[in-house]
Amino acid sequence: MNQNLIVNRQILLASRPVGAPTPSNFNFTETVIPKPQQGEVLLRTVYLSLDPYMRGRMSDAESYAEPVAIGEAMVGGCVCRVEQSLNSDFEQGDWVVAFAGWQDYSLSDGSQLIKLSPEMANPSYALGILGMPGLTAYMGLLDIGQPKAGDTVVVAAATGAVGSLVGQIAKLTGCKVIGIAGGTDKCLYACETLGFDACIDHYQDDFAQQLAASCEQGIDVYFENVGGKVFDAVMPLLNPAARVPVCGLISQYNATHLPEGPDRLSALMALLLIKRIKMQGFIVFDDYGHRYGEFFSAMQQWLAQGRLIYKEDKVEGLANAVPAFIGLLQGENFGKLVVRVGPDHLA
Amino acid sequence: MNQNLIVNRQILLASRPVGAPTPSNFNFTETVIPKPQQGEVLLRTVYLSLDPYMRGRMSDAESYAEPVAIGEAMVGGCVCRVEQSLNSDFEQGDWVVAFAGWQDYSLSDGSQLIKLSPEMANPSYALGILGMPGLTAYMGLLDIGQPKAGDTVVVAAATGAVGSLVGQIAKLTGCKVIGIAGGTDKCLYACETLGFDACIDHYQDDFAQQLAASCEQGIDVYFENVGGKVFDAVMPLLNPAARVPVCGLISQYNATHLPEGPDRLSALMALLLIKRIKMQGFIVFDDYGHRYGEFFSAMQQWLAQGRLIYKEDKVEGLANAVPAFIGLLQGENFGKLVVRVGPDHLA
Fold first, then answer.
1. What is the mean pLDDT of residues A185-203?
2. Which chain A residues are Cβ-neighbours of B274 within 8 angstroms?
3. Residues A217-226 pLDDT 10s
4. How many CB atoms lie within 10 A of CB B306?
5. Phi and psi at residue A160, in whole multiples of 5°?
6. Phi and psi based region of residue B245 (left: phi greater than 0; alpha: psi -120 to 50; beta: remaining)
7. Counting C-beta atoms within 10 Å of the first and last residue's C-beta, which end of chain B has fewer, N or C?
């Protein structure tokens, strides 16, 4: 069944995954379309963003945000249209960004909505290059990474929503950019289309050696999205005074236990000490939400000037959100993953 | 034999320690007093500073500085007097800070010397509160730690040269300060003399529980000097957006291998990510040498106002440098460790 005017399709969290999520962790249901009260708007989801952080919300381990409760709709950023408005700030037909979740319809009091220009050519870009992943790349690289012209910047998940922008912004800053990605196609794309200086395939047996050979001058900024064996290969190459923004650790999200020893925690701390390295985690809206305007105008200008390439991996239909999300955690997407949940206009 | 005008007593690195240094790693010798060339000064060591970083210089593992070569004099910061000057910038009798090493006499071309005021009441303070350890405490806490009034600051090695200043500066900033030290006497001193809000004895079996109980509001700044089980107890208490200046890891300096697993490297990175924590190593003169003047005037003023307490652990005689240094790595010193190598005036 496609999106319609009669029911609200939802994907609920059915159970907490142990290791990689499976389809049985999700429950596809239909419910009534909610009715807005005075001051509220009824939103219809057009695009749903799928992002690695959602794996964390499926678990009840301590994290920076509350987990999704069992039986509740999965959370997520969406581009929506206002279908009905009882709020004077919004009109029917407005395009907005909302944290509306994996469902067709939701209510909002308007306080957390970002209104989009009706002229926006690609409203789904508000979930990527001009939204949370874009802000993540921009602030993580520029504010924490502090790249200088001539620095060597290494970025993992190099063709992903965040990594592809990190690398391109680093190139605009005058850096040498080495990507890390999974597979030949992604590596070719990073070099030929995104303009990275090199991109190393982490599936290759001699990945660590290839990375070292590409970073003859060491690494000044490592933008961490992945962790695991990718970080292991990066560690010995970090230069004195290197900066490591810790944005994500996708290789670890499905892990059920820590790896075997020895325990390298103290080795990492000794590396930070000896090489005067800064390693800093960040949660983009908590740390940088107040600088969204600065980011938006810079990115929009680069985009308009054709200085940034942006690739979406668009999946059709809410039902495909589940396999697409499971694949995202395995690196199967190519570009920013968004789900087309409904049409621009629903007759 | 005491310091004299005839020979240059030296303590050389005889062999590289495996684990904790022993007296056999050092070699006490006598050699001729070097003669200055034009442009040089002959320095006589009055005080020698003993500091944990020296353990690193005894090893040939990769670090931020070259190791001491076997058969060469151990390196170290000293307060010296100019005994003979062929450099127009210095006069006989001048007090200077020099990286003169574990020996009575050394030469300098003047370029790395810091001249001290002849009125300085305690020239040895230039090796502690007004020197490298003071600058380390000041910049590590204020520039990397960024404490705000009301924050909870935890400092390990709380009565040491650096830790005692970190805690006192944090108190001057309006923070709640919890020290960690080895033994009842040090903990009493931290609370009663230095004015810390609490100090936990890491020799107690329930150390981690006591630390947690003292940090009801979590930890906003942890000044890392120690590592090991002290950091293990700190980790779960770190607040979102906490800052961890990594200044030293004294508990690890004598380690010969990594601890047993599991491998918690990824757990530390996940903690940084989830809690948006900044962890940053620094090497004080590389990172902050250019801000020495700013530090010196602030510290001198606090000291003159009686707002900072400073305790030295003074050892008499160059020959005692070896046991004192071995003890330093076991936490046996109480206050800043300095060796009185020679008298103010050598007749």
1. 97
2. 56, 62-64, 281
3. 999 999 999 9
4. 7
5. -75, 180
6. beta
7. C
Nearest to A276 among B62, B264, B286 (CB): B286
Measured distance CA(A167)–CA(A161) in Å, rounded = 11
- Report the distance separating Cα B54 and Cα B72, nearest Å: 14
Delineate the domains of chain A, giving CATH numbers in brackets: 7-128+311-340 (3.90.180.10), 132-286 (3.40.50.720)
Do B276 and A287 count as a contact with CB atoms less than 8 A apart? yes
Tens-place pLDDT, residues B119-135: 898 999 999 999 999 99
ipTM above 0.95, yes or no: no
Question: Does residue B137 surpass a pLDDT of 80?
Answer: yes
Q: What average pLDDT does the structure give for chain A?
A: 95
Residue matched to tokens 């006499």: B105
Over residues A120-138, the pLDDT tens digits come to: 989 999 999 999 999 999 9
Report pLDDT digits (tens) over B259-299: 998 999 999 999 999 999 999 999 988 889 899 999 999 99
Find which of A279, A284, A285, A286 to mutate to test the B interface (most B CBs within 10 Å of its CB).
A279
Nearest by Cα to A295 from A160, A177, A132: A132
Q: Are strands A105-108 and A152-156 parallel, antiparallel or unpaired?
A: unpaired
Q: Within 10 A of A328 (CB to CB), how many other CB atoms are there?
A: 20
- The residue with tokens 């995954």 is A17
| Residue A347 reports pLDDT greater than 80 | no
DSSP letters, B26-60, are: EEEEEEEPP-PPTT-EEEEEEEEE--TTHHHHTS-
In the 8-state DSSP scheme, what is residue B341? -
Residue B58 pLDDT greater than 80, yes or no: yes
Contacts of B201 (CB under 8 A, 6+ apart): B181, B182, B183, B184, B186, B187, B207, B210
The gap between the terminal CA atoms of chain A, to the nearest Å, is 15
Helix or strand holding residue A137 (H, E): helix A132-139
* Interface contact flag, A263 B267, Cβ < 8 Å: no
Nearest CA in chain A to B144: A278
**Chain A neighbors of B275, CB-CB under 8 A:** 64, 281
Q: Is the pLDDT of residue B143 over 90?
A: yes
Structure tokens at B89: 């910038």
Least confident interval from A126-130, A290-294, B74-78: A290-294
CA distance B317 to B9: 11
